[in-house]
Write a structure and sequence with these properties.
This protein is mostly helical and about 525 residues long. About 75% of the residues lie in helices and about 0% in strands.
Amino acid sequence: MNGDTIQIFVTMLCYMAAVIIIGLYFAKRANKNIENFYLGGRTLGPWITAMSAEASDMSGWLLMGLPGVAYWCGFADAAWTAIGLAIGTYLNWLIVSKRLRRYSVVSGNSITIPEFFSNRFHEKKKVLLTISALFILIFFTVYASSCFVTCGKLFSTLFGFSYHSMLIVGAVFVIAYTLVGGFLAESASDFMQAIVMVVALVAVMIVGTHAAGGVGAVIENSKNIPGFLSLTSMANPVTDADGIQQISSGAPVFGEAVPYGLLTIISTLSWGLGYFGMPQVLLRFMAINDAKKLKLSRRIATVWVLISLFAAICIGIIGRTLFPVDPILISASGAENVFIAIAKAYLPAILAGLVMAGILAATISSSDSYLLIAASAFAKNIYGGLIKKKAKDREIMAVSRAILIIISLLGIIIAWDEHSVIFTIVSFAWAGFGATFGPIMLFSLFWKRLTHPGAVAGMVTGGAMVFFWKLVLKPMGGLFGIYELFPAFVISCIVIVVVSLLTKKPGKAIEEEFELVKATFNE
């Protein structure tokens, strides 16, 4: 490693040390009991609630995946995705957060999402609890793999080490950190990491714009690429059999722009629907110390998201001007390194190290959430709820840590392909959570007539339809080529309503709980 690379490495090590210190600081408090370990004892303030929710949600795809999409195929795909996410963020904080915070307390003081669903319907056989816990295990394992891919790409690109060795190093660090501190450490560090992420994005956007010759120069360059700046068409990189973009006379080769029609726009906007089913965000709603403070949290979260998404897209567009034929960036997978390329080329080494820490921040803030929630789904809900109902807190936490390691190993296996595209992995897991938990969450909070059979049928249908649409229907193209979240979400809603109306209405105790939450909602 040369001098600049060593400075970047040392800066990132200092950042990682700070994260570990936070974990150790909260370790004793986190291990006091299950509620503290999984939900922080419902003690989060509005700023930490907002910033940790968004940092854990966005992950490394915000700094690598989204800029990579913008660099590879232009404005449309990235912009419509960002618009959908911004709308979804605001609506989730507006209509779900306060109601879920209060309902989770009323329904047996629920501290996990599966537990909330189970308590909401006064389950005896724990069917909903089991199904939701299994889906969380499946989709968060996929999600964790996307974070490990980010670690592998980041360190291999920066330091020249092999992707696989860096993948393992990153995973080990995340596992160790999550094992130590639990939810409190995760949320506190996520607050810091959210700040690092947004500062890194804005800094790279500004420096990149200046290096490219200003906004005008970036726009002029982009206009020369068919469909690159359009909202109704998409750039079409010409690639060989290995997915490498062709170069002619020192310039990247593009074909005719690909139309980006209304159905595709609706499909891409549907990313926003995913928020209603994201456990890592929903848990923050449940963990805040006062439901009345969620209004402030909503404003903070929305502003953070708008700034971050805008900067991420701009970085991808700017990158096409600065590095049109960089050998690292001439594939869909390689394009996700554009943030790193700009930071390394145009920032002093120490500042570049801080910016790279932004990617690490995004990865850590998400993967620790994913691993902790997935582990809790098995340990608290399946092991402690079904297998050994009298298990003590320490025993459940021990099982949780063991499951966390197993999930991480599976995530490493999924991430082992160094040509993995972060955005693609995240989009599948996002669809899975959105369609599995989004509809049932909305109906649970706002429809008294929702029945237990309706909830079970809707959850299973949503989760299964994501797999069926992605693996069976989507390859057919045409109408079936839309993002799997949208059809799976809609079909799940239809199933919930139909089955609920065809089955016996909920019992009196369930309805009384619903009315109690409704009555206190506007207080």
